[in-house]
Amino acid sequence: MKSTIRIGVVIPSYKVTDHILQVIEEIIPEVTRIYVVDDCCPHGSGSYVEQNCSDPRVVVLRNPVNMGVGGAVMTGYRAAIDDGMEVIVKLDGDGQMDPALIMDFVEPIAAGEADYTKGNRFFNLERIREMPAIRLFGNAVLSFLTKLSSGYWDLFDPTNGYTAIHRDVARYLPMGKISTRYFFETDMLFRLNTLRAVVVDIPMDARYGSEVSNLKISKIIGEFLAKHMRNFLKRIFYNYYLRDMSLASIELPVGILMTIVGLGFGAAHWFASLRTGLPTPAGTVMVSALPVLLGMQFILAFIGYDIASVPKRPLHLQARNLSRCTARD
Questions:
Q1: How many CB atoms lie within 10 A of CB 153?
Q2: Confidence class for position 99, pLDDT limits 50, 70, 90
Q3: In a domain, 271, yes or no
């Protein structure tokens, strides 16, 4: 049964000529249009698809310069929005993502339960054993950092590139500001949180074959840490001071200040004790420990509030209702 929803699939194409035709062949009939984005591929993947693929749904787009996976996806998003696609799925061209799962990503959005869906390869604990150990460790660390920087505490596997988004949410994205390369998926979550979009994890299994990853952890770890910190600070400012004020807006700065004061006071007296050889009085220890303990309580209270503030009302439903009200007026 063909879906009544217009679904567009965006496939960033860069050095994937060994796999992309098979990926396109496996894309389900419910999909309306397939956008293959040749990201200035040195293998000419766009021309390769045009010459060897007869699927009438396929549209080849070309970036004049290499813009990274994020830049390629944004090119596909723009084309899909212009063509009236209602849900836009992003699928890699290397064969790791099963096209048969497309409707699993689309259905929560079509049902009004989510604005954006993303894959989670860690849902099935038995299949996790098949994943390389370095990927397991890296994803665990990145997931924690992403929870802090994006505010989506209920999500895991942040670098998973199998995603779907509603058109009305994609239109609100600042496409010119989103990170275009390896930080793209994580930066998308940060941008979605600033829009208060609902994001849902979709259980999936990864398929590992002969594809070669271009990602070098040693080269990007410093960049990732700096961008996570930047996004965390921006999110806190946007959500707790610019757009809204709450008790959590007071708890965080007070908690940080008290913790710093307590640690500073305690460290000063500890060094003084080392120099003089005299023990620090119990009262001084208590005076230094009390603000640290209270400060940590304030910070934990803020984190609890932040976890409870994960968006729960889909943005695209609000946008639809606003459009209807405007039309009536």
A1: 15
A2: very high
A3: yes
